[in-house]
Amino acid sequence: MANVLLGVTGSVAAYRAADLARDLMREGHAVRVLLTRSAAQFVTPSLFEALTGQPCLVDTFEEPEPGRMAHIDWARWADVAVLAPATADSIVRLAQGRAEDMLGSSLLASTAPWVVAPAMNPQMYASDAVREAMSKLRARAAAIVEPTEGDVACGENGQGKLASIGAIAETVESVLVRCRLWEGCKVLVTSGPTREPLDSVRYLSNRSSGKMGSAVARAGLLMGAYVTVVAGPQSEPLPLGVKEVRVETAQQMLDAALAEAPGSHLIIGVAAVADHRPAVVFDGKRKRDGAYSLELEENPDVIAALAAAEPQALTVAFAAEVGEGTKEARRKLESKGVDAVALNYVAAIGQGMDADRNALTWVTDGSEEGSGPMSKLACALWLLEKAFNIRNTG
Ligand code: CTP
User: Fold this and answer.
1) 365/136 Cα distance (integer angstroms)
2) Of 261-275, 315-329, 363-377, which one has max mean pLDDT?
3) In terms of domains, do 95 and 132 share one?
4) Are 284 and 199 in contact (CB under 8 A)?
5) How far is the CA of 116 from the centre of ligand 1 (A)?
6) Residue 151 host element (H or E)
7) Within 10 Å of residue 204's Cβ, how many Cβ atoms?
8) Are 234 and 217 in contact (CB under 8 A)?
9) Rounded-to-integer distance, Cα 9 and Cα 39, Å
10) Where does the pLDDT of residue 66 fall: very low under 50, low under 70, confident under 90, or very high at 90 and above?
11) Beta strands at 314-321 and 266-269: parallel, antiparallel or unpaired
12) Distance between CA 19 and CA 25 in Å, rounded?
């Protein structure tokens, strides 16, 4: 059973949050309610206090326990944060990370996953500002319970009615299941590019930004895992809460990953490891001296070595392909000895290296399945769910 922080904002549908609180409590969850000032125009704190047996807070400076900061306390307490109904204003403020009331600061201070159930006038829901804010929330892995079509309180008809309480409660349950899939497990991720030195100032590398590796690490944290990331020099920051091991070359990545691997339940090779390195590294800075040829030697295959060293772990490799990819992904499945390959088409516009979105195909021995285009974080959560399913069904 879980701790649910329920944020209620100023919509006519605010009264339905009382039923939601009751339903969640019937499922055995503890519920604490935060109201915005506008929500308090429609429903009162005493209603929710009577229903939940817990204080219901509105003002940032309301402290039910002297000496403790409620917005931090409640943020830490929550296993999931639900915003229902969510007005246009609350959605835009949440997307901007504004913390000007108790609800805003508690949500910002919480690492719990968000469930957002919008309710508003259909034109407002269709507006650019709300759409933009919604896509930011989706990119941060918020589960959105889409409003339904119908007559709304202002007399218009369209998409804007708060979803059914059953649908919101069901989404809360599925988010709670998902955020425990890898609870207590050890997940190792390789991420970013490697740099293979040519001389003391130059190197061979690639365009990997580390965005997908960071997303996989974040998804692991959101699903309750202890996450270690062995990362090359990537521009994308790693999420707070992971164990971060920084390396430069493929050989260093191999050594660091092998040292971190023992006891891992899941190992994911997201790094774009350089397959080759200069056979000889020039001592100092090479002077311009006409054309020259470079001899390259092969780098170790990090994910293949990890799969061989940790046979108890579930191992996943990425395959960055430009053409017909599944045949190649199956070849990698075999040659690297991994349990699954996450195939992505790097030539697709807006997907792959350095993009914010991706689309994966999950390839295993007997099956393949596509995620469809999504934010990298959504792809990462999808991938970790697929990995969990193999682990449990064998
Ligand atoms: N990988 C690795 N060590 C290497 C090379 C790749 O761990 N030296 C891992 C990557 O992290 C990724 C997968 O293997 O999980 C990618 O495989 P790779 O054979 O390099 O394929 P691509 O780079 O996708 O494509 P290509 O074979 O065309 O180079």
Assistant:
1) 35
2) 261-275
3) yes
4) yes
5) 38
6) strand 148-151
7) 16
8) no
9) 5
10) confident
11) parallel
12) 10
**CATH code of the domain covering residue 339:** 3.40.50.10300
Say how far apart CA 192 and CA 195 lie, in whole Å. Answer: 10
Question: Does the residue 55 lie in any domain?
Answer: yes
List the alpha helices (DSSP H) in the chain.
16-26, 39-42, 45-52, 70-77, 88-96, 102-109, 122-126, 128-139, 165-178, 211-222, 250-260, 302-309, 326-336, 376-393
DSSP assignment of 45-86 equals: HHHHHHHHSS-EE-STT--SSTTS-HHHHHHHH-SEEEEEEE
Whole-number Å distance, alpha carbon 15 to ligand 1 midpoint, is: 54
Q: Token pair for residue 325? A: 């990819």
> Is there a single domain that holds both residue 94 and residue 238?
no
Is 154 a catalytic site residue? yes
Q: How many residues does the chain have?
A: 394
Domain contains 159: yes
Q: What is the pLDDT of residue 352?
A: 67
Contact 106 CB / ligand 1 (< 6 Å) = no
Q: How many domains does the chain have?
A: 2
**Number of helices and strands in the chain (H, E):** 14, 22
31 Cβ inside 6 Å of ligand 1 = no
Q: How far apart are CA 9 and CA 302, in angstroms?
A: 49
- Per residue in 218-266, pLDDT (tens digit) is 999 999 999 999 999 999 999 999 999 999 999 999 999 999 999 999 9
Enclosing domain of residue 342: 186-276+295-393
Q: Is the pLDDT of residue 70 over 90?
A: no
Considering the entire predicted model, what is its pTM? 0.88
Which residue owns the Cα nearest ligand 1 atom 17? 319
- The number of CA neighbours under 13 Å toward the Cβ of 340 is 29
Whether 273 is in the pocket of ligand 1, judged by its Cβ within 6 Å, is yes
Catalytic hit among 154, 179, 185, 379: 154
